[in-house]
Design brief:
mainly alpha, 1 helix
């Protein structure tokens, strides 16, 4: 049972790391596009 918990924790950490990486890379690409699309709205 303890072994299962250890594997489960490792999977959770791995999943969290993957999600964090995905969000960081998405922010890097989406953020400039989002700023560009929100600029005209600010001008208006």
């Amino acid at each position: 049972m303890r072994e299962f918990a250890r594997v489960n924790l490792r999977l959770t950490l791995f999943r969290t790391a993957l999600i964090t990486l995905a969000e960081l890379s998405a922010n890097r690409y989406i953020s400039p596009v989002f700023k560009l699309t929100s600029l005209p709205a600010n001008i208006i």
